[in-house]
């Protein structure tokens, strides 16, 4: 009878341990799915922003009669494959240049096509801010699981690593991993 109780206790403990592992693993998987969803949303808005800035090149050239290369950043990006982090930085630089043209050439503000692009760019900024916040919130939850005990054991076993926030920091900066098992 004593052996039966010991074996039952061991099986019960093992079952609970397996359930905990599966539950923790599933928590990671749910967050990874949400991270991928947030990245896809950010990608869509960045591509939209790129397309708008690309369209603005012809409008700016037609209304300013400038011989300069208009929005060179955008022209250079046409054939490059960049991560969302890099693309966001490059598009931010192109947006600053777009704003420069808007200030230097008041005639552009009277052009309907230019103003539509300007409004759409402003709307895309609001979208990207919202998606960045959503992404960073998910990354916070994910990184908490990676760093905190006991889920950090699962993270170590399945090789889940901390992820960087989408906050405009230099991506060459590394996350300092203070806790190692």
Keywords for this entry:
181 residues; mainly alpha; de novo design (two linked rop proteins); 74% helix; 0% strand; disordered C terminus
Provide an overview of this structure.
By secondary structure, this protein is an all-alpha fold. The chain has a domain at 36-150: Up-down Bundle (de novo design (two linked rop proteins)). The protein contains five helices and no strands. The longest helix has 63 residues, at 2-64. It is rod-shaped. The protein starts with a helix and ends in a 23-residue tail after the last helix. 17% of the residues are buried. Residues 170-181 have low confidence and may be disordered.
Report the total helices. Answer: 5
In the CATH hierarchy, what is the architecture of one domain at level 2? Up-down Bundle
- The average pLDDT score comes to 85
Question: Strand fraction band?
Answer: under 5%
Give the H and E element order.
HHHHH
């Amino acid at each position: 009878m004593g052996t039966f109780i010991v074996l039952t206790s061991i099986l019960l403990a093992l079952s609970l341990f397996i359930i905990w592992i599966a539950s923790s693993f599933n928590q990671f998987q749910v967050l990874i799915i949400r991270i991928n969803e947030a990245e896809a949303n950010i990608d869509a808005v960045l591509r939209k922003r790129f397309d708008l800035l690309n369209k603005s090149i012809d409008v700016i050239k037609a209304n300013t009669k400038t011989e300069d290369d208009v929005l060179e950043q955008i022209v250079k990006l046409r054939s490059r494959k960049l991560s969302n982090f890099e693309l966001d930085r490059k598009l931010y630089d192109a947006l600053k240049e777009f704003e420069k043209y808007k200030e230097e050439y008041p005639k552009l503000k009277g052009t309907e096509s230019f103003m539509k692009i300007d409004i759409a760019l402003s709307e895309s900024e609001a979208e990207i801010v919202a998606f960045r916040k959503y992404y960073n919130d998910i990354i916070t939850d994910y990184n908490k699981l990676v760093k905190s005990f006991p889920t950090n054991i699962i993270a170590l076993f399945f090789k889940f690593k901390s992820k960087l926030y989408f906050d405009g920091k230099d991506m060459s900066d590394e996350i300092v991993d203070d806790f190692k098992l």
